[in-house]
Amino acid sequence: QKVFRVIPQNEEQVEIINALASRMQIDFWQPDSVTQVKPKMKVDFQVEADKTFEVESLLAQNKMEYRVLIDDLQTAMEAQFDSKVRAAGHSYEKYNEWETIAAWTADIAAANPDLVSRSVIGETYEKRQMYLLKVGKRGTNKKAIFMDCGFHAREWISPAFCQWFVKEAVQTYGKDSVMTNLLDRLDFYILPVLNIDGYVYTWTNNRMWRKTRSKNSGSLCIGTDPNRNFNAGWCSIGASNNPCDSTYCGREPESEKETKALADFIREHLSTIKAYFTIHSYSQLLLFPYSYTYKYPSNFAELNSIAGTASKQLASLYNTKYTYGPGAETIYPAAGGSDDWAYDQGIKYAFTFELRDTGRYGFLLPESQIKATCEETVLAVKYLANYVLEHLY
C-alpha cells in the first residue's frame, strides 16, 4: 500500500482525483474526503497495493505531478516503533495501548493526589469507561480549560500529547513559574482519548481506522466521524450523510455516546470552562472557529492574534512552522466539529491543533518524534492557557 501526494493545479485535475475516488477505494489522509479537494491543495491519499499501478498510470496519463510519500505502508507502520525507550509498561516516549493509558490515568492520579484526580464521564459504544483527569491545585471558584485528544483513532500522536501534558504539569509544578501559576489558578480537564473504541481498533485490526466503532442501522458500514457529530452546522458542509464515508456525520448530532459524554460534561461545566483545546494530527496547523461557515467569529482579531503568538512560541524550540487561522478558510469547510460547537456554547477561546508532521509520515509519526512534538506543543498550550487566565470573562 502506498501513500501519494498530488497537488491538482486546476478544476480538471480535481475532477481526475474525483474520478479515481469513484473507481476505487481511496483513503484520504488530507483533506478528510474527496469532496474537500480543491486546486493548489496538497492531497494525500492511501491506495491498496493492487491499485497503485493503476493510480500511477492514470496520474501520468493526465500529466499530473505526484510523489509517493510512503512507498510501503506496512514498513512505515513498523518503523513508527523506533523509540529507544524500552519501558515494559507506560512510557511518555512511546505510543501506548489503551489498557496502558487507562492504567496510567489511575496511577498518575494516585501518585499526585494534590494535583490530579480522575473521574469517568461516560462510556463508549463498546462499553469502555471514558476517563477524565482534572489537573490543578485544589481551590474554590476556579476557572477551567478543557483539552481532549484522540478524536480520530489513527492520530496516535494526539493521545501521546495529552499524556505528556499531564506529566509536564505534575513534574514542573513548583519549579516552572508559569505552570505553577496556571495550576494554582486554573484547572485543566484532560480527556486523554475520546474515541477509545476506534483507538483500540487501530492497535488490533486496522491502523488506519478513523471513526468510532458504532453500528449504523441499515448499513454494513461501521462508525461515525466524532468530529462531524456535534451540533454546529451539523452535516451541512464537509461532512457526509453516507455511513460508509470517513466523514459520516452520524444519524443526528451527538448520536455517538462519546461525543454526547463530552458535550454533556462541557454543558454541565459551562460556567467554569473558559477555553477548549482539541488535539489532532497531522498538518502543523492551529485553527479556530469557524469551520462550518466562512463567517468570522466575533472575536476574530483576538483569536487570530493569539494563534499567531502561540505558533511563534511553538516554533521557538525546534523551528516547527505552523499555519494558523479560521478552519474553513485555512484548510477547508467542515461542519459538526467540537471546536465550533464549544465556541457556540459561549467558550470564547476554542482551538484545534493539528500536530506534526506535514505529510512525510502523516499519521505514522515515529515514536522518536513524540518528545520534540510534545515539548513544542506544550509551549503553545501554556501560552494560550496563560492568555486565557489573564483574560477571564
Automatic annotation (TrEMBL):
Record-linked InterPro entries: CARBOXYPEPT_ZN_1, CARBOXYPEPT_ZN_2, M14A-like_propep, M14A_act_pep, Peptidase_M14
Q: Which UniProt keywords apply?
A: Carboxypeptidase, Disulfide bond, Hydrolase, Metal-binding, Metalloprotease, Protease, Signal, Zinc
Q: One Pfam family, short name please?
A: Propep_M14
Q: What is this protein called?
A: Carboxypeptidase B
PROSITE patterns, per this entry?
CARBOXYPEPT_ZN_1, CARBOXYPEPT_ZN_2, PEPTIDASE_M14
Gene encoding the protein = Cpb1
Gene3D superfamilies linked: Metallocarboxypeptidase-like, Zn peptidases
- Main location class: other
